[in-house]
Amino acid sequence: xxxxYKDIKFTDADIVNPDDFIPAAGENGRTYNPHNVRPRLIHDxxxxxxxxxxxxxxxxxxxxGDADKLDHFMIDPKDDSDRADYxxxxxxxxxxxxxxxxxxxxxxxxxxxxxxxxxxFLGNAGEPFDIEGLGVIELPNPKFSFCALFNAQFDNKLVRxxxxxxxxxxxxxxxxxxxxxxxGPNSENTx
Length: 191
Fold this sequence. Notes:
Elements: E1 2-5, E2 8-11, E3 38-44, E4 47-54, H1 57-66, H2 80-86, E5 87-88, E6 105-106, E7 112-115, E8 120-122, E9 127-129, E10 134-138, H3 146-165, H4 176-183
Antiparallel strand pairs: 1-2, 3-4, 3-10, 5-7, 6-7, 8-9
């Protein structure tokens, strides 16, 4: 299934942690969300990278990093081009906040490297990323409706599947799907 928000498309495959979804309070007003978990759409210039349910931006980025959704933004100090872009051998050009006594990378030839720009360290492993080009949109948190989910499940899958293959050798009375269709959410359908 695909959705669009502010011209950015995303699918269920983009969702990193669907089990962490906490819907907004429905009509009964009963939803417990003490940490204010919200859906966040992480994108690269309008192209979806991930959708993450998290209570804050740092947690959302960490979850996306741990789920390997940000791998193409990762900086690898062992890679010559990444070292050239993000690191320096000159301590005087080292990014502020880093200690010159703490070398970030030592090459096999013995040269020492420090960060010349501060990367963002994400995920459980605290790996370095360049996420400067990423955008994050906090999506509206949809209300929970079991009826809407139930009807969508049957309307989109069961009825189409049933109507396209209709019965085989079964009569309406013997078809297990007709029991759901005739007496379920699509009872207005006649065959």
